[in-house]
Amino acid sequence: MKAAMLLSAASSVLLLAACSPQAADPSETAGTPVADTTEVAEAAVPASENPLLGAWNTPHEAPPFDAIEEEHFLPAFDVAMAAHSAEIEAIANNPEAPTFDNTLLAMEQSGALLGRMSSVFFNLASSASNEEIRAIQREMSPRMAAHSASITLNADLFARIDSLYQQRESLDLEPQQLRLLEVTHHDFVRAGAQLEGDDRQRFADVRSGLAGLYTQFAQNEQADRESWTMALDAEDLEGLPDFVVSAAAGAAADRGLDGHVITLARSSVEPFLQTSPNRELREQAWRAWTSRGDNENANNNHDTIRDILRLRLEMANLLGYETFAHYRTGGTMAGTPLAATSLMEQVWWPARERALEEQADIEARIAAAGLDHDVMPWDWRYYTEQVRAERYDLDPSEVKSYLQLDNMIEAQFYVAERLFGISFTERTDMEVYHPDVRVWEMTNSDGDVVGLFYGDYFARPGKRGGAWMSSFRAQNGISGDIPIIINNCNYNKPADGEPALLSFIDASTLFHEFGHGLHGLLSNTDYPSLAGTAVDRDFVEFPAQIYEHWLEQPEVLERFALHYETGEPMPPELLERVLEAQTFNQGFATVEFLNSGFVDMAYHLNTEPGDIDIHAFEDEVLASRENLDAIPMRHRSPHFLHTFAGEGYSAGYYSYLWAGVLDNDGFAAFEEAGDIFDPELAQKLLDSVFSAGDTLPAMDAYVGFRGREPSVEPLLRNRGFDTDAGG
Predict the structure, then answer these.
(1) Catalytic annotation, pick one of 358, 513, 552, 647
(2) Predicted model pTM
(3) What is the Cα–Cα distance from 273 to 382, expressed in whole angstroms?
(4) Is 513 labeled as catalytic in the residue annotation?
(5) Model confidence over 412-444: pLDDT tens digits?
(6) Are 560 and 411 in contact (CB under 8 A)?
């Protein structure tokens, strides 16, 4: 089992994607006392009766959710971790000389019980949490990190891996065997395997401390987000479109409240900011939204951020890196912080130039309304929607009426079938962890079931915000286990009997997450540590982002963008305006993103993190590139889950832009072929990217599909930027 795949507490089963993190119950806050987890353990059933530890006699051996209770988790963790430790010790202490089979293959086959039960737990911690689960998570995060460190810092185990690595050219290994050896050795080195003496123990302590801090950061953000609502009086509903009013009523009902409320879920607050004519309420909602984790309460994340940055720097220094940014980018396509920052700089000035033009349009709207105030962050979305409506004659409610969730799900399946020859059939008899969850079997062209896909699409209390892909089981070429993949989104749940209608951005998010899902579902590797999304962080977004392009194709929208009442397809003239509008407001979107990317990188290049003033640091970084005051960071530091709730996107938020270069350049190949489902290109995309996992370096995978390295020009062109703009 390669080091990167070891189950490290806070984020081992999560893959955050393009949308950003939000959900809601004022009583369920991380700052309130919780039950001691020892009471949970003492109440547990015997191991022999624990469903997490026995055979799963379910279709495709999927998790038996109806039998799993919170009290089962701590005993199962204890048993599974002990079993995994014993397996690792047997490998490390094997008296026989190391071979691929008795070391690498044995590691791949170890930890199956721990991987199976912990994937269930960490998915529930994100998708269906409660106070008991959060308490268990706080206990298990540092314990799992310590368990991971006990493996990667096992000197005898690494000696066997290193021995094989040093003689790898003479071992006559198959290509995937050699790749597994190289990746495993690389990951162990990056996880401290070559450290000696006190440094080894300190490294383990740092990783354990970080795991606890990641959990604390995420739970603080969730507590702030779930504890806030803004009640709307009757007059506050005036001017709001029906879909916003309906969602506000549903949010109130979900919380046992009368009337209408806005929450800090992006699917609630952002449409309100786009449509409410009440500037005072927009400001109130915007300030609450951007202040998660930044309030004077028990959920304030400032000290947590400083502690995380301090420990990350220490960890990087222990491994010989100048900063954590150098450490993190060292294992990516970018290679260095300079390369990652240079890409962001290359896009920044054209994006800023476009954002200034967009701001001028807003200023003109404000003046035309007879108002006299500067453009503030809580104004941008509201006036932008007015400009959009005027320029493209678009009514958000009209567009949403053609984008039913069920139809968009069918659209994402249709594209997969046309590209990759697979199909999806819903199973309504599968056990799920919440009634909203749906399950589909994925079959290949021969009719064999080769994957199981779960979709969890609606926001609710106890569920983290945003959208992401994760797995209950990765594809396993050794055992033949099919992958079990899940997509999570946070759309507003409609009233009973009403269809769920999406904005175009919502639909793009759906396709994005399904691109991640297909990366896991279509995996076809020999070894689980190379399977699916186990690729470079700045390559992992490529499959998701290229998949979004198919939603924007008339051939797809004409077939699936059907009016929820009449069943009529979206009129051609409306479809044309919708597609033309996709480059609209790209200056704002790109500047907002890059602000977070620059701050993320700056944090991790800083060598004195203990002295950082969070507000001043953000302001300084943004001012250094002449940022527009009306466009803050997409994710402010105290709720920046991508970078502080785990290591997935730390010093790596730029990855979305890096993948943006790849996806725009990559989809251009289909455009050049004149067929968005070109069979030859689709096969290359499948073979080199979606099914390949980490069996070859990321750039080799891209070149295997595209035939050359990528160009930034298609990204700039598709976003409508002036490529001559510069700072």
Answers:
(1) 513
(2) 0.89
(3) 6
(4) yes
(5) 999 999 999 999 999 999 999 999 999 999 999
(6) yes
